[in-house]
Structures are given as C-alpha cells and as structure tokens.
Request: fold
Amino acid sequence: MNNRAAAIIIAAALLCSSGQSQAQSPGNGVSNFFGNIFSGPKSGPTAQAAPNPEGGPPPWSGEDGASGHPLMTAAAIRQAAANFQNCVASMWPDAARRNITQQNFERFTAGLEPDLRIMDLMDSQPEFTKAIWDYLDILVNDNRLAKGREILATYKPQFDAAEKASGVDRYAIASIWGIESNYSTQMGDRNVVNSTATLACIGRRQAYFKDEFLTALEILNRGDLRPEQMRGSWAGAFGPTQFMPTAFKRYAVDADGDGRRDVVDNAADLIASTANNLKKDGWQTGRSWGYEVVLPEGFNFMLADKSKAMTIAQWQSQGLKRADGKPFPDSTEKAYLLAPAGTQGPGFLMLQNFRVIMKYNPAEAYALAIGHFADRLRGGPAFVQPWPRQERVLSRAERLELQQLLAQRGFYRGTPDGQFGGQTREALRNFQASIGAPADGFASSDVLERLRGR
Reply:
C-alpha cells in the first residue's frame, strides 16, 4: 500500500486506475480510514453499530465485505469488534518500544470504540465508475484554479523557501493541496487514532494499520500535533495534503523552527513537508510530469503500457508529436505512453515526475489530474484533444462480465472482480488484436458486445 491511503474516493473507481487507491479518500479530502485500558480485560461493544443518529453518518451495514476476505465477513468483524478493547491494550508493549509514555498511551486511547462503518468503506464496490474526463472536470475547474492562484500568492514566501530547499515545483505542491482537500475545506472528520485503531484490530489490513496506529500515537506523544488536529479520512490520512501517519514520520518538516511539525495548521510546515515527500520519492527538478501527445494513424497500442518505456526520441520515431505543436525539451528522457481513452482520446507520455506523483496516490487518473492542475496553475492551457464524452461508462456488473468473458477466451488470468487495472487492459488489448481491432485496451460498450459475440 502506498503512503497515502487515497486522495479521492472516486479515484479508486476509475477505469484507468493502476491499483486501488489507499485510503479513502481512497475521498476528496477524502481522505478519513479509523476508562483506562490497563484495568484488565474488558468486553468490547457489540459489533453492530448503534442506530444512526439524526444527521449522523450511516452505521455499518452488518454485511460481509465485497472483497470476500475471511476477515471481512460479518461474523469475523463482529468477533474482532467484541475484542477491540483487548486488542488496543495488547499494543501497549509495542508503543512502549517506540518511547510512548504509558500516561500518553492511556490518554490517547481512552474512549476508543470500533468504527465499523469503516469496514463498508474499506470494501466498497461502486456500481458505476467515473470516466476519466468527468473525473478531471470535477478536480480541475475554474473555482479550484482561482483558489490555487490565491494560495500561491498568499503563501509565496513559504513556497519560495520550499522550492529552494527541495527543488520541487511549487505548482505541484499547490496542486496536491487543492486536489487532496480542496484547499483545506475537505480534509475528513474522523478521529485518526480511532480509525487506525479500528483497522489495526478489525478487517483485512491489520498489520499495515497497526503501524499507522502506533505511529499516530508517536506523533501525539512527541507533541507535533494535538489530538483535535488529527482528524481525517477513514483510512487515517490527515491534513490539507493528506499524510498517513507513517508518511508524516518519514517526510514531515519543521520549516519554521518552532519545534513542531504541524502539517495541519502551519502553512510553512505543510508546504515544506509535501515538497520533502515528493523530493524523497525521486522528484526531478525543472522537469515536467509529462506531455499530451497526438498518436499517428494506425499506431500500435500494444506499446501503450507502463512496462514499455522508451526515450522521447524513440517515441518520436513511432510518429508521436506534442499536441501543442511545441518541440520536446529533451529527447533523451524516458517515458511510457498512457492512452486512457484508447483511439478516441488524447495520449500522454509520462515521465519520472509522473511516477513520483503516483507514489503519492497510485491511480493514473489522480496523477494525471495533479500534473494537469499544476500546469493550469502555471498558466498553461487545457488539454488540446477532445475526450470521447459520448462513450457510456460500464457498470460494475458489465466490467465483471467483461473480465469473465476475457477469461473464458483465455486472455485474462486474474480473478474477475470488476476492477480494471493493467492486467485487464493487457488482456483487452490482446483480445482486440485477435479480432483485428485497434488494440487500445479501452473498455467500451462496443468491445463488450464483441466479447459477447453480438
């Protein structure tokens, strides 16, 4: 799992996702996963959530998770929830090894209760996905751009300092801030300690979230943040740029020297920490994330694969040109081709900085939105080529059927789950090539009909 449990809930549902987004955000700001416990074993609460209070969030459905994981069955969730208090107490020795005081462990874990609604969010299977063009429309819009320019002006000294120290483009930092939390207006409101404790004790990712839970306690124990500041996504991501606790531990910076790394309410720390994250993940100073390109007639879409990176010069030899007509700055850079709408939409050559953005959130649609939003903040234009907005997005049932039909024909060797990633796109390209169609890997309603044999 990547260092961000997600950034935008819709990102996890996109056709062009390269993997499941982490947290939920997987939500736009989306980002939010999770008496004295030393008095001896206690029985936990009953697993069924309390009735939904007026205006409150929905309770746990009480149903098995869609993943089919044995720890996500309703019975397993109820059993784990009944043992929640004992589970939290059992983590004290690990907390002590991290130099968390017993007083603070008791203080920060007092009153924790399992938030079982998280189990539904963790295994959510949206019936319909968002088309990538709709996703970009939502995230890269005039209002958000105007706010981003205002943020860049308001915090110019902080952006100047971060850019000088890290070499990371200020527009990329501002873009992440805008897309992760709509400039601090949508950061999530779940208690991070409670969410990560829930996930550390219940469900299918307990080892991962145990580390997040203990790290959240470390942050509070050190005094970087106050408990009321650590509110965020159901997966535990918090702050305007949605740090998971372990990502905070690796990347957070005390930029103003006040002794605290406050990535929630301190703009200097927030900007510097986000920049440090990108820098340590391999950001290349002065380089773009990628280029919109025009593909030639009859292009071999089997080359549109993350594993088939080539130099810009080699892509040019295949007939690719920049959509804006400008020359490529450096023909020796290596890039891979992303064609999220196949023959019907624009292509993109993705460079190293695009891969760095994907370490922040491993969905290609998310990284494309970040890169494009940064370019727009810099004063660049919208994408040149149109999207196939007339195309109908397949429902989850149709996506599942498409995978099953590909498997029946020997093209798909994974487990059909309705989630489209690289393996599904490769299988789809091979099927398209077998019938003499452009092998672009785009899951249109037409290709589903061809699989059905109609």
The first strand starts at residue 190 and ends at 191. Residues 206-222 form the longest helix (17 residues). Strands lie at 190-191, 231-232, 290-294, 310-311, 321-322, 334-338, 347-350.
